[in-house]
Write a structure and sequence with these properties.
2 domains, Rossmann fold, Elongation Factor Tu (Ef-tu), domain 3, alpha/beta, 10 helices, six-stranded antiparallel beta barrel, six-stranded parallel sheet
Length: 317
Amino acid sequence: MRLFRGLSNVPDNFTGCVASIGNFDGLHLGHQRILQELKRAAVEDGLPSLVILFEPQPKEFFAPQAAPARLANFREKFQDLKNAGIDCLLVLPFNHTLRSMSADGFIRDILIDRLRIRHLIVGDDFRFGADRSGDFQLLRKAGEEHGFTVERSQTFTVGDDRSSSTRVREELAQGQMTNAADLLGRPYSMSGRVAYGRQLGRKLDTPTANVLVKRLHLAMTGVFAVQVTHTESGEEYIGVANLGVKPTVTDVPEPSLEVHLFGFSGNLYGQHLHVKLLHKIRDEKKFNHIDELRNAIAADKQAAKTYFAARPDAFRF
């Protein structure tokens, strides 16, 4: 997948595309349906498929502390789109210049002049341009004038409700991992590089990998049974993880993912892990003493092992 960071990095000889615009946060089943439509249209037109993202996401630009927690950081989103078979990704910096661009200017300068767009697929609630003045009808009118077509993606439902990133966040916040997986089409996961931490896990007889999550907020916190893939080797493990801010051992809340792998001994620093959070064991809790934390960790490890022991056919490593 070709990555264009900013409009200026789209080559002058770019021959056109079939595109979609959105956050694609978490790449749930509704997003996946849009990407299927996008790839189908691209094949029919003989053009590359292209997704347009904004970084930061608009809500993060306007109110970073109040913005919804990301389901996926940029690296994870890039990998999701690549795995989905998208040809090109354009990342537009959402800044004061872009937020002030009129809807007509967005269509003219980005979609027509630079991308030479032939077909565009957008969600049924897509808005764009300064003051969110652009909508589907404006895009369709511009398409009629400039020779491109616009398609409204159909709402995708799971159960009785619309599949959305908001709904995934709600299920995760309630610890409903199976429901979240049903919306995503796969277990919820996080990926990142292993960095040096405080080494406290070793002192508690439970060495952990400190996975950098690169998020301002977390969609959920707690202790989880996890399935982990070592990205570089492809080797898989099961284990237990704490996702949160480690309230017992730090005074400065900072999102972190600490993963203990059952049966693993080795050095993971600087390497990447892909962590599937399968089952919530308990909420994150602040303990009064380290001994209380040690006992809780032992119970968490046993709870995770019990979870996996009940599913021997699914987890054989």
